[in-house]
C-alpha cells in the first residue's frame, strides 16, 4: 500500500478475477481454504472467479505470459510469495508488458512464506495475525476493491538473465535455506526452521564479488561561508 494521499484505483462491479492457485503451497490446504474462506466472501462482493490450479513449477509463469488477459479485471494469487514471483516475471516477459502490468494484482496467503500478504495486512491497519485470520483480512481487502501502485526491483545477472522482485533478492545462506527446505513443504512455515538448522550444520562457504556505484554527493545551491561551523 502507498502512503495516505496517494491515488487509488477501484475494481469494477461486477468483477471477474483470474485466481492462480498452487494446491501444494504451504501445508497443501490452499485449494480447501480458497473454497471454504475466500470464495463465499468474493461472491458476496460480486467478484466472479476463474480458478487456474497450477500443476508444476513455472505453470503460472507460462499462463500469464501467453494468455489473453483482457477477459479478467484482476489477477489473484492464492499461494505464497513464490507464485506471485512467477506471475510478475511472466507478465514482464509479455510483448505488451507495459499494459499487462497495469492489471491489478492481489496476493492471498496460502503458502509457507507470506511476507507480502503480511505486509499489506500491516499497512492496512490490521493487527498482526497469521493463517486463516490473515487470509480473511487479505480477502476482505480484495473485496473492497482498492488498489494502488507498487515498486518492483530489477536484477540482471552476469549470464544475461533478468528478474523482477516485489520484496528483495537473496544470495547465499538465506537462499539455500529457502531452496533446500522445499522438500519439507508439508511442514508449513516450520520448513524454514528445519532448513536453517541443516544449512548451519553444513557450514557452506560462499564466494562472490559485490559491485556498486558510489552515491554522488549532492551539490549545494548556495555554498556555506568558509567560517561557518560544520553541522
TrEMBL record:
SUPFAM superfamilies: NAD kinase/diacylglycerol kinase-like (SSF111331). Signal peptide: none annotated. InterPro entries: ATP-NAD_kinase_N, Diacylglycerol_kinase_cat_dom, Lipid_Phosphate_FormReg, NAD/diacylglycerol_kinase_sf. Its EC number is 2.7.1.91. GO terms for biological process: cellular response to growth factor stimulus; negative regulation of apoptotic process; sphingosine biosynthetic process. One of its GO terms (molecular function) is sphingosine kinase activity. Its main location: membrane. Keywords: ATP-binding, Kinase, Membrane, Nucleotide-binding, Transferase. Gene3D superfamilies: 2.60.200.40, Probable inorganic polyphosphate/atp-NAD kinase, domain 1 (3.40.50.10330). GO terms for cellular component: cytoplasm; endomembrane system; membrane. The keyword DNA-binding does not apply. Residues 12-159 form the DAGKc domain. It is found in: Endomembrane system. This is sphingosine kinase. It comes from Quiscalus mexicanus (Great-tailed grackle). The gene is Sphk1.
Amino acid at each position: 500500500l502507498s502512503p495516505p494521499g496517494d491515488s487509488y484505483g477501484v475494481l469494477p462491479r461486477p468483477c471477474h478475477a483470474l485466481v492462480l492457485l498452487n494446491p501444494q503451497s504451504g501445508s497443501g490446504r490452499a485449494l480447501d481454504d480458497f473454497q471454504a474462506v475466500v470464495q463465499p466472501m468474493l461472491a458476496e462482493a460480486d467478484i466472479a472467479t476463474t480458478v487456474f490450479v497450477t500443476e508444476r513449477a513455472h505453470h503460472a509463469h507460462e499462463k500469464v505470459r501467453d494468455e489473453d488477459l483482457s477477459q479478467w479485471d484482476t489477477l489473484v494469487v492464492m499461494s505464497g510469495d513464490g507464485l506471485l514471483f512467477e506471475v510478475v516475471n511472466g507478465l514482464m516477459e509479455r510483448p505488451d508488458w507495459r499494459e499487462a502490468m497495469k492489471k491489478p494484482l492481489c496476493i492471498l496467503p496460502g503458502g509457507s512464506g507470506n511476507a507480502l500478504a503480511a505486509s499489506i495486512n500491516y499497512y492496512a491497519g490490521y493487527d498482526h495475525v497469521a493463517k486463516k485470520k490473515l487470509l480473511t483480512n487479505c480477502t476482505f481487502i480484495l473485496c473492497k476493491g482498492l488498489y494502488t501502485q507498487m515498486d518492483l526491483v530489477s536484477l540482471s545477472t552476469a549470464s544475461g538473465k533478468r528478474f523482477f522482485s516485489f520484496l528483495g533478492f537473496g544470495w547465499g545462506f538465506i537462499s539455500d535455506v529457502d531452496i533446500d527446505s522445499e522438500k519439507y513443504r508439508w511442514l508449513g512455515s516450520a520448513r524454514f526452521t528445519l532448513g536453517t538448522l541443516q544449512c548451519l550444520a553444513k557450514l557452506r562457504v560462499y564466494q562472490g564479488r559485490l559491485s556498486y556505484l558510489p552515491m554522488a554527493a549532492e551539490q549545494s545551491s548556495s555554498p556555506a561561508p568558509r567560517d561557518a561551523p560544520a553541522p
